[in-house]
Each structure stands twice: as structure tokens, then as C-alpha cells.
Amino acid sequence: MPLPAFQYLEPKSVKEASRLLRKTGRGKVLSGGTDLLPLMRMRLEEPALLVSLGAIPGLSFISYRKGRGLRVGAFTSLAAVGNSPEVKRQCPMLAQAAEKIASPQMRNAATLGGNILLDTKCPYYNQSPLWLESGERCLKAGGDRCLAVQGQDSCYAVWSSDTAPPLVALDARVKLVRGERARWLPIERLYSGLGDKPCKIAADEILTEVLVPEDSCRLQTIYLRYSQREVIDFSVVSVAAARYRRKESAEFRLVAGGVDPAPKRLLQAEALLRGKVIDKSTAQKAAAAAAKEVGPIKDVFYPSRFKRDVLRALVEQAILACESGKKE
Ligand SMILES: Cc1cc2nc3c(=O)[nH]c(=O)nc-3n(C[C@H](O)[C@H](O)[C@H](O)COP(=O)(O)OP(=O)(O)OC[C@H]3O[C@@H](n4cnc5c(N)ncnc54)[C@H](O)[C@@H]3O)c2cc1C
Ligand code: SF4
Questions:
Q1: Which atom of ligand 2 is nearest to the CA of 154?
Q2: Phi then psi for 26, rounded to 5 degrees?
């Protein structure tokens, strides 16, 4: 399907980009376009203006400073994130996740910022206009109820971005710029948990960089994902695990993708591991708790039970992998 008509501008600064978005009221930021342009072709997004970040200097970089942490510009390509020796050294799990996304061509075009702000996916919504017109529209498509979860009045479309679970597990911060003002936000708080509006970012706000703080660098971490195909496919379920070194004992941060409209912290599983000797038995208990705390999983392609089983297996594997690789 051809793209709908739109105006296209290339501002030279973030401030100008934000001003243009505020002025039009119906604009969208364009980074790699690998998610936004397909949505526009399907008429699921019809912005009057696309504001490209491509001509703004200083949005594509990777830098590490001791004491501060790892900073990555929002316009940095996923290929650059996945291949960066600095990312591999400081936050290997972020490189692992970026390397698994889509295909080499897509990773060259797609950006970290676009991946963090990816829209949720659902087979009742991500369809052509003809398909949507042939039946009742769901809540996210302008109707009044969810079709995937009968009788529900909120949207359960699932979170599928691969870099977000690792960044939440690493307690990363994002910088959001709106006009003259900038704010730093823990990435966990960027996500609303609502499938029809998953990111809490204003229409004229621009994500400019991501910071992984120093105490989240060089940890024992792992990112695992299950997808039907190895390439050009979204993850069905994913798990990011980070093992923090605390004074008395180790502490885990565990985050799942594909099971909720946001990257989901597995808090009960984390609590079960706190202060414990980590062996197969504790890992299995935590994994069982994780499988219980994510429900209800509403994914029309995969039964809830299947997703829970995959999640349980990935959580157990991730905990044991982090523990066996511990350095202290
Ligand atoms: C075939 C295919 C396979 C895919 N496989 C995967 C996969 O395995 N894993 C995965 O995670 N994703 C996958 N994707 C989704 C997508 O390509 C990626 O998530 C990509 O990282 C999106 O980045 P982008 O730069 O292209 O974003 P864009 O499409 O340009 O933007 C995405 C959204 O974010 C907004 N935005 C972008 N940058 C900013 C910013 N700096 N500030 C404010 N708003 C911004 C845009 O307005 C838009 O709403 C796949 C897509 C396709 C088509
Ligand atoms: S989860 Fe429900 S409301 Fe959300 S996109 Fe799917 S069918 Fe629509």
C-alpha cells in the first residue's frame, strides 16, 4: 500500500523539532521509519507531518565515562549498538538484544530511540484497512471493546521491543526534551502498561539519549528470547536478567517482554532470590513465581499456558546463567 500524503521536514536542532511538532499538533518523529512507515501504509498512523531526526547533529553516539556510565544517542542505529565494543564491554546484554532484532538491513536503518518507543502489536489491530473495515473495530482501532480479550474495555496488545527489557533490567534512564526543557526519567516509568498508548511521552517530546548508570555496567547479565524464526521475527517471549553485586548478597533484576503491554518487572521472582543461595532449586522457584505473576497473557497466536511455560524456562535459564558467570 502506498504511504498517505504528509509533509516532511528536517530540522537542525532538537528544540526546532519539538517546536514543529507542537505547532502542527498532528506530527510524528521519524527515526529509522521501520515501525512508523509500515503503520502509515496500513493507515494505522496518519500524521500530517513527519519530523526527521536525521539532520540533527549529536543524536548518534556511544560513549562511556567511568563514574557516569554508558550513554547512547537515541538516533544511534541498532547495528551500531549491537556491534559496539564499548556496549559489549559495559552492557553486553544490550548488544545481545540489538543483534537479535529483525535483519542486518533493518538494524542499519532502525534506531535505539525508535525501538524503545515501539508500538505494541496485536493481530486484531495490525491489519490493512480492508481487513479492519470488514468487521468490528477493536478499542485500539477506534471501537469500544477489546476483541482479543472478550468483554474487556482496555487494550492488552503486547510489548515486543527487544532493547527495552534489558534497559529496564539495567535501570537505565532516558532523556526527554520538550522545547527548552529536558527531563531524565527511569526508563521503567516511560511505559504506561496500556496497550493502546504504551509510552508516556508527549507529542512534542523527543527522546535524545539513554544512560545506563555506572553501577549497572559490567554486571553479569543475559538476554534470552524465544521467537518462531531466528531472524525477521518479533520475540514471542523474552527475558532480561541482571545480577547486581550488593554488600551481603546478590540481587537480580528480571524483566520479561512479550507477556504484557509493557516490559514487565518480575518482582515476585526477584524477591524470592534476594539473600538466597542461587542453585537450580531457587531458580526453579523464582521461575515458577514469574510464570504466575505475569497473567493474564492475552496473545491470540499463543495460548497463555504456552507463554507461561516458555517464560518459566527462560527465567530459570537466565538466573542460572547469570549466577554461573558471576565474578566475585
Ligand atoms: C519485519 C520486521 C521485523 C521486526 N523485528 C523486530 C524484532 O525482532 N525486535 C524488535 O524489537 N523490533 C522489531 N521490529 C520493529 C522495528 O523495526 C524496530 O523496533 C525499530 O527499532 C524501530 O526503530 P526506528 O528507528 O525504525 O523507529 P521509527 O519507525 O522511526 O519510530 C517508531 C516510533 O517511535 C517514535 N520515535 C522514534 N524515535 C523517536 C525519538 N527519538 N523521540 C521520540 N519519538 C521517537 C516514532 O514517532 C514512532 O512512533 C521489526 C519490524 C519489522 C518491519
Ligand atoms: S488487545 Fe484488544 S484492544 Fe488491544 S489491539 Fe488487540 S484487540 Fe485491540
A1: 3
A2: -125, 40
In a domain? residue 299: yes
Note down the domain range covering 309.
220-328
Task: Give me the numbers of helices (H) and strands (E) for the chain, helices first please.
Answer: 12, 12
Residue 224 CA neighbour count, 13 Å, CB half: 19
* Residue whose CB lies within 8 A of the most ligand 1 atoms, among 26, 31, 40, for a mutation test: 31
Query: Containing H/E element for 142?
Result: none
Is 174 strand, coil or helix?
strand
Q: In this structure, what CATH number is given to the domain that contains residue 321?
A: 3.30.390.50
- Residue of minimum CA distance from atom 4 in ligand 2: 155
Residue 277 within any structural domain of the chain: yes
Res 304: pLDDT = 84
Which one of the ligands is nearest to 203 CA? 1
Domain-located, residue 32:
no
Residues 195 and 154: beta-carbon distance below 8 Å: yes
Ligand minimally distant from the alpha carbon of residue 114:
1
Closest ligand 1 atom to Cα of 232: 3
Asked, for residue 113, whether it belongs to a domain, the answer is no
Helix (H) or strand (E) segment spanning residue 165:
helix 164-169
C-alpha 245/C-alpha 118 separation (Å) is 31
Within 256-297, residue ranges assigned H as helices are: 267-273, 280-293
pTM, full prediction: 0.96
The cell numbers describing 124, all together, are 486484531
Using only C-alpha atoms, what is the Rg of the chain? 20
| Ligand 1 mean position, distance from CA 97 (Å) | 14
Max CA distance (Å), the chain: 60
Interval 198-236: pLDDT, tens = 999 999 999 999 999 999 999 999 999 999 887 888 999
| Count: domains in the chain | 1
